[in-house]
Design brief:
Blueprint: H1 5-25, E1 30-41, E2 45-56, H2 59-79, E3 87-99, E4 113-127, H3 133-142, E5 147-154, H4 159-184, E6 187-201, E7 206-208, E8 227-240
Antiparallel strand pairs: 1-8, 2-4, 2-5, 3-4, 5-7, 6-8
Length: 244
């Protein structure tokens, strides 16, 4: 015969667990608010891609001319105070130039023929002294660079700026949450969750092709503008009712 006591104990435990299950199924009143923080700062670093395109009757001829011009460009950059670690090759290519002919008297189009070669070589350059940017751009062209593009500005270490934007985003969310809570006649309880999304909106990059420059030309005028650091935060609070 089975003992009776364990059966009774299980029944009692099952009865005690029912309210607990019912309570856990009741959702906690909460409010979810989006906050936005924005910090504006002047950039302290610029990046630019500078390069040389050369032509020649043969690939060797075009490459030799390009190598000489690029060596002069890199020497100019280093003389201007750009550190070697801030100069990085970004593009190199050798390509043929084709001449396409019209159809001949028999209506046949002859195949294109190679008339020469192009060699392109470029470097990404990071300039840490923005006051020197215009002067360096002028020197780059004087040194033989005939293509400059993709100028962009940045902040070398944006960590503190992003932290300021985070605080502003949380304060914005908290202010909105309190307004809603007051209007609903409840209070804000503990924070249930915080999620972040961030974005940086830099000025539009400047692009131009440099063809020639005089040795006595004035520095290239450059406006760095400002950078905007945006942080979006989503915060969820529990709500306190009069019965809490």
């Amino acid at each position: 015969m089975r003992p009776f006591l364990p059966v009774v104990s299980l029944a009692i435990l099952a009865g005690l667990s029912l309210p607990a299950l019912a309570d856990s199924a009741t959702p906690t009143p909460s409010i979810s608010i989006q906050g936005r923080g924005e910090v504006v700062a002047a950039p302290d670093t610029a990046s630019v891609t500078a390069g040389v395109t050369t032509q020649g009757a043969t690939a060797r001829e075009a490459l030799d001319a390009n190598t000489k011009a690029m060596a002069g460009l890199i020497t100019t950059l280093k003389t201007a105070g750009v550190d070697a670690k801030d100069i990085q090759t970004s593009d190199f290519s050798v390509s043929p130039q084709y001449l396409y002919s019209d159809k001949d008297a028999n209506g046949v189009t002859p195949p294109p023929r190679i008339t020469g070669y192009n060699v392109q070589n470029g470097v990404n350059v990071k300039i840490r002294k923005l006051a020197d940017l215009g002067k360096i751009l002028d020197q780059i062209v004087t040194a033989g660079s005939n293509t400059i593009n993709g100028i962009s500005f940045s902040v070398e270490d944006p960590a503190k700026l992003l932290d300021e934007a985070r605080k502003a985003a949380f304060a914005d969310a908290e202010g909105k949450a309190k307004t809603y809570a007051d209007a609903a006649g409840v209070g804000l309880g503990s924070i249930l969750s915080i999620a972040e999304g961030s974005d940086v909106s830099p000025p539009q990059p400047m692009m131009f092709k440099a063809m020639a420059a005089r040795a006595d030309a004035a520095p290239v005028p450059v406006e760095a503008g400002q950078l905007t650091f945006d942080v979006n935060a989503s915060v969820v609070w529990a709500l306190k009712t009069s019965s809490d």
